[in-house]
Amino acid sequence: MAVGGVVTIVVGSIMQWTDASFGFMGLEAAGFNAAMMALVGLLFGAFSQMGFFAYMTLNYIALSVIRRNYMWNALQAYTTLFALGGIGYLLYQDRVKLDNNWIFWVLPLGLGLASWAVAYYKAKLTNNNAFIPTLFLQVVVTLLEAWPSIRGEESNVTAMIFMIIPMFVCNAYQILWLHKLVRKQQTTDSASDAKPAV
């Protein structure tokens, strides 16, 4: 949640400095806007946590049902590509309403490249089996979490950027720390198992 708060303040401040109409009461109330952005960022962080735990539950259930890791990875890879293509198509259909002629290709391309970088780094930290699940989380789960800014009644490019970037960073933070937390828990469990019974 703290990561969400900090990233939202940074993204919101940059957007406010480049577009004075962004934010409440313009640049005159920068401190107030920063506090509001921090609160929104905390909500983004909490929402990201819910999405992350939902994905972990889905992953556990899918592996229990499918029982073949490569089939589940293939399904996640297909869904990731479909999501990137689908979001590009939806934004292309809405380009007149959004008054924008570049978001429909910049968003899928940028999200795909950034997700690939996070997945590649995660695979380097752990093993190659982590690449596809990380890519799925960073693309599909991030898009689902940011769906209100993409297809909401008040959706616009500013709202998309303001919501997608903090969600993406929060998801990346969680997935990159997951193996360290699991390893620490396994070490703690092993140590407690080795203690003699009292």
TrEMBL record:
TM annotation in the entry: 34-58, 70-90, 102-121, 130-147, 159-178
Pfam families associated with the record: KbaA (PF14089)
Record keyword Glycosyltransferase present: no
Top-level taxon of origin: Bacteria
Alphabetical keyword list: Membrane, Transmembrane, Transmembrane helix
Keyword Transmembrane helix included in the entry's annotation: yes
Name of the protein this chain belongs to: KinB-signaling pathway activation protein
